[in-house]
Amino acid sequence: MRPLLVCFALALLPSAALATPDDERVKELLQSEDYTVTWGSPPTYDAGAELEIGDGSGHGGTLGWRRFRPGADGVEVLHLQFDEGWKPYKSKWPPDEAPLVIKRARMKTGAYEALLRQLAVVAAAGLERVFKGSITGSSSDFWVQVRLAEKEKSLLDLEWAGYRGSSNQLKYARPQAAVTLAREAVKDLEFKEGPLTDEERGWLSAKFLRDWAKFKDLEFHWWVRERYIVTIGAVGDKSVLKTLREILGGDPKDRCVYHAINAITRLTGKDVREKPVEEMDVEKTRESVLRMLEEE
What we know:
41% of the residues lie in helices and 25% in strands. It folds into 2 domains: 18-194, no CATH class; 196-296. Helix 6 packs parallel to helix 8 (255-268). The protein is α+β, with helices and mostly antiparallel strands. The protein has a 7-stranded antiparallel β-sheet with strand order 8-7-2-3-4-5-9, with helices on both faces. It has a two-stranded antiparallel sheet with strand order 1-6. The protein has helices at residues 2-12, 21-29, 109-124, 169-186, 198-215, 222-235, 241-248, 255-268, 282-294; strands at residues 35-39, 50-57, 62-71, 74-83, 100-107, 125-129, 137-150, 153-165, 192-193.
């Protein structure tokens, strides 16, 4: 009877008792006084699934995109980093700049599989808010995103933008944990800068279009939208022109319209803007841009 009793006892152990070292890191990231966690059964993700990670700091002036693309000889990690810092300007509009760094590294398949196992634990975690009678907040605004897909089928899709605080933590805890795990997984890789391929520009354009449809009207994504437009103007292809043209129809006081004018200029290679660009009359300039697009 003893072997049967041992098996029965193991079956009754809580999931925490059976945790792996990777699970412990996830649990550390998801510890909080503002919610409780129920550890569900993690799904099994195929090592061929493609991972996207996004993050950024509103006040910090940053936005980052990462793609993990599995292949026969490992996983290619593409990293795009937008970083304008915190620079005040005196012109009517922000400087017409696209401060981007593009770099790549190669990741071992085993390390990628370990990351996917961690993300599966994040995906299976159920969070429930603890009401303490008071809330905390801050002026720290940030954006986090994780998307895992296999043959266009979404396996994990978490995203959030806003201000750090106890009332929001339930919403951003899991995507923030996923972003942290991905950053930790690549911190020791040897990244090298290099130009984008046509395939990569196509992927980045598709990402822009998909993400824009999700958060084009969300209140706390305003700075994410601005940096998305600036970024895609430098790294996208002409498949995004239709959406950029739609953005031109917005409120001319919205900086997204100004950034869309500049992005279209970069993508088409045709400059019909007023000079200096940072002092342009947006309403007048967008009419010139729309006429130019009709001739494309």
